Description:
The protein is mainly alpha-helical. It is 63% helix and 12% strand. The chain has 6 helices and 3 strands, in the order αααβαββαα. The model has no long low-confidence stretch (mean pLDDT 88).
Amino acid sequence: MFILFFIVWVALNSKLNWEVAIFGVIISGALFVFCCKFMHYSIERDKYHMKRLLRLVRILPVLVGEIFKSAFALLPYIYRGKTPRPIVARFKPENITTEAGQAMLANCITMTPGTITGSLKDGEYLVHCLDESMAQGLGSSSFVRAIERWEEKK
């Protein structure tokens, strides 16, 4: 955070010379001490949140891959006129316990073509699927595994 304060200081001054650098170090240090003492800032908490953010970024390729797979699975319904058999599936993943993880899973399911999360209550999902084949394996999908890894506290 000290480095971030210093970078902002230099950017606001729009130049870097000895005077700006010395005052920037002093002011950045004072702000850093203030944040640690009065705002309960800790470097450990920042490390924890950065790890969670990096794990969140790892979910994006899974989401993009599932979107493409679902989009290709929908092509026969669009171009060949295949008749869908809609189904409402109910499932409850065991290892997703936080509200943030549950909401993330619901959003990932909704962003995937052919599926919509209808409700989420007490960790149980009600998902409308365009076809029965899309309902298979919802509880053990790659989304569930990726979000379980995101929720791990390591």
